[in-house]
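Researcher: Batch entry, complex prediction.
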Amino acid sequence: MRRLHSALAIAIAMAVSPAAVQAALYSDNFDTYVAGSNIQGQGDFIYWDNSEDLNSHGLVSDAFAFSGSNSLMLGGHGGAHYTDPVWQFADANTGVSPVSSGQWTQSAMVYIPGDSNTNYVDFNYMSSHPAPLTWSGNPRFQMANDVVTGPNGGSMPMAGLRDRWFEVVLELDLDAGQGEIFVDGALLSTYDWNAANGNEFDGIDYWAPADSSALYVDDISLTAVPEPSAMVLSVLACMGLMLRRKRSA
Ligand SMILES: [Ca+2]
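Model: C-alpha cells for the complex:
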C-alpha cells in the first residue's frame, strides 16, 4: 500500500510540477528595447488596426521595472497624444489567431504611481483584430476615480494598489466562452468572453486618452493552461484500478 501511495504521489507531483507547465506562447519583459523608444513595431506590438499612427505611441520606460530595467509606459504623455499600442497574437494581416480554443492565462505586472490621478488606462482584450474589430471585455484602471472596473459590473478600489507592483490576470476558457479577470489575486469580473463573434483571442489594445496619467506594465505573458499528460492520466487510472482490487480482495 505504501508503494501505491508513493506512485500516486509521484503521479500527482508530475501533474503539478513546474516542468509540466507549458512555456508562454507570447511574452515580453521590455528589457531588450531602448528606453524611450516606441513599442509599436517591436516584439509583437503593432499599431491599432495595423495602421501607423504616430500619435498613439507607447514608450519603453526605465522609470519603473518589475524585471530588468524596463517596462512599458501607458498614458503619461501630458496631453500631447493618446496611447494605443496593440499586443497582437493573431496574424496582423489575416487576423488568424493561434489562440482559438482551450484554456489560457494572460498575466501582466502593473505599477500605478501614487501621483497618477488623471483619466484612465484600458487593457482592451480583443477577440478579433484587425478588422472586423470585436472587443472582449477590459479592466479599466481609473486613476481619476481611484477605482478599477471590469466587465459585468466588476469594481474594486485602487487605493491599496498604488506604488507597488501587482498582477493582473485574465483566465480565459475559449471552449466555454468565459473570461475571468483577477486583480492582485482578487476576482474583478466573470463574463461572457464573446457572445457575438466566436471564440478567439487576437490581442490586447492598451488604450489611454491623451491626458491620462502614467501606468506601467511589465512581464506580460500568454500561456496555455496545460492539461494532465496522457502518461499521468494512465498512471492515475492504474492507481484507481489497483485500489479497487485491493478493497475488493
Ligand atoms: Ca522588464
